[in-house]
What we know:
By secondary structure, the protein is mainly beta. Helix content is 11%, strand content 43%. The chain contains 4 helices and 33 strands. The strands form 8 sheets. A 6-stranded mixed beta sheet has the order 2-10-9-4-7-6. Strands 23, 25, 27, 28, 31 and 32 form a 6-stranded mixed beta sheet that branches. A 4-stranded antiparallel beta sheet has the order 1-3-8-5, with no helix packed on it. The longest helix is centred in the first third of the chain and has 23 residues. The termini are far apart. The site of one zinc ion (ZN) has 6 residues, from loops.
Amino acid sequence: MKKVLSIIMAVALLCTVIITANADAGTATITGDDAIAIGSSKDYTISISGCADATSVAVAFSCGESFSITAGSWLKSGTMSTVDLEKNKAGLGLLASPNINGDLFKLTVKADDVAATAQDLTVTVTAKNGANVIFEKTVTKALTAACAEHTFGDWSQKTAATCTKPEVEHRVCSVCGYEETKEVGAVLEHSFGEWQVTTPATCTTAGEETRTCTRECGEPGATETRPINALGHNFGEWTETTPATCTTAGVETRTCTRECGEEGATETRPIAALGHDWGEWVVVKEATDTEMGLKQRVCKNNSEHTETLDIPITYKITEGDKADYKAADKQDFVVASSADPAKFLALEIDGKMVDPSNFTVDPDYTKITIKAEYMATLAAGPHDVTIVSTDGAANTTVEVEAIPAPATEEETESENTSPKTGANSMVELWIMLSILAAGAYVTTYLVKKSKAN
Length: 453
Ligand SMILES: [Zn+2]
Ligand SMILES: [Zn+2]
Ligand SMILES: [Zn+2]
Ligand SMILES: [Zn+2]
């Protein structure tokens, strides 16, 4: 007996679950406008879907206090049909068709006065099959009652202008409370304070400065930044870090006075080598008529820098010393030095080299025979004669006596056979240039010894 009762209870519970599940299935909707102008009416259609076959259906409806329901009618047919606007409900029985899905009921709603807020139209649909509720849904729609024409007051300020937004004015409908707004005038623009350095610039990197709106508006663009250019190094004076010497370059350096330690903060450049600053030549050993002497000079920058030079031998004139020459005799003139004839270089008269065609040199000793034709070209008076050898020279003078007035014929002949003077060959030119360069003709031919540190 207990077992049977349990089974019955279980089945009953199951049925209840099934019935409840069926009643929850499906949907109900209200179709119509959201707003109704005050004094007018609008229709709203209630539709359902997902409802099983039914034998009767009922609706219950209500609306907010600013509205009234003025009419209701079934959109399905049945033998028993009621609409009770007093009690806000309607019923339909003995249905022509058990399928009641689709448009089911129509309500007409009138807006009586303004509504401060939206108010709901609420409809509950209940369908039954026999005594069992097979569908039950409550659906709502928010309605507002609107002025046909608003009754606005004066425009007044709603919000003041800010840095980025203009002033806003508004006016409100005294009937429905509808608000209208508009923007007036221009924005204030930010009112920036002074630029403040937020990241200082260094010698090589840019900094940054910032300014902010003094109104502390917090609106977009209220803070601006801009870069500060790198300063560039501020160099001090150049100081010598490696002194230059006579022969080597020195170095001088300068450093950024900000002691930034950044790239390029120290610069160097070379100081040119000084070059020797020689003092006067000092004779260490005088030359004799057989040996060369020696002279030395010392650098004023560094006494360890010295240079030495041989002093040429002062050869003796062994023949023709301080002689008199009578041009009228038309004789060759002989002059000799104590030097080795192998060392003979040149003959000079009055500092000018005599062309070798004007004299001959004895191979056995330095005996020079100057031709009479050449001697005839010398003016009356003393003439300086120098026999130049590779390691020295012998010097003397010759006194030329005036030639009596010559015949015209001889003069012509003399012109035709005029002996060569001056430098004509390349070798002579080289010797002369060397003399000019050295400033002292003899030293040019000598070996120069120098020592420099
Ligand atoms: Zn209004
Ligand atoms: Zn601002
Ligand atoms: Zn610097
Ligand atoms: Zn020096």
